[in-house]
Amino acid sequence: MSKLRKSGGYRDLRSFQSATLIYDATYWFCEKFLDPRSRTVDQMVQAARSGRQNIAEGSRASATSSQTELRLVNVARASLEELLLDYEDFLRHRRQLQWTKDDPQAQAVRRVAIKHQSDLLDLTDQQRAALYAEWLENKDPFIRANALICLIHQTNYLLDQQIAALEKQFIEDGGYSEQLAVKRLQHRSDQSDVTDNSEIPPCPQCGKPMVLRTAKTGQNAGKQFLGCSGYPDCKGAKSL
User: Cα separations (Å) of 19 from 16, 22, 85, 196, 211?
Assistant: First the structure.
């Protein structure tokens, strides 16, 4: 029996792939430019990891709970927002300028995703990181921080779209429990079409027991009738 709702598939999500890139680049950034004993390092790495892991966990949870999926994707979004502030603080505390959205460097970072939009999903994590190596492996920590700020903004935009789509789906289709109840009612309805009844007379053509059925097509669609239990070998029927 197939699952009522699909789950998983998060590795093919642009948001997950982008969050993975941010997590890896943050790990390398902290390793190279920050004191490993600093509490900030732990906070930044954990925030980056949380962004990635909660997208995956939410995707897996989608099979049984729309609300859990929505909550976890929102947690991922909040974690990346926290990381964004850490990178902004890094620049501000060192009196370094943050790129504006019109800065040539910021535009160049954004163009990578646009240029490789058709094949970005098919790349490995290493190949995807190589596209941004000019910035994410730069010796200048301020270039790295600014590039990561750009990537976080892009990923947050993807997550905002993902959250909006999940909310729309929940409103239109309901949650898992509602969908399960609908499937159960459909199953019971289908079963009632062939429920045996000891008071129902035998088939007038072959003598086998008749069962209560519901016409699904034709001018009598939706109406109940008595049909031979030997159908399709016997097509005996009787109106109620």
Answer: 5, 5, 16, 57, 58
Tokens 């909660």 belong to residue: 54
Instruction: Give 207-226 pLDDT, tens digit per residue.
Output: 888 777 777 777 777 777 78
Q: Break the chain into its structural domains and give their ranges.
A: 10-182, 193-239
Beta sheet of 210-214, edge-to-edge order: 210-214, 224-228, 237-239
Helices (H), 116-211: 125-131, 133-136, 141-173, 176-192
Task: Supply the pTM of this predicted model.
Answer: 0.72
Cα Rg of the chain (Å, integer): 29
Q: How far apart are CA 178 and CA 171, in angstroms?
A: 11
Residues shown for the chain: 240
- Listed in sequence order, the residues at least 6 apart from 42 whose beta carbon sits closer than 8 Å to its beta carbon are none
Integer Cα distance of 147 and 132 in angstroms: 9
d(CA 200, CA 219): 24
**23-42: pLDDT as tens digits:** 999 999 999 999 999 999 99
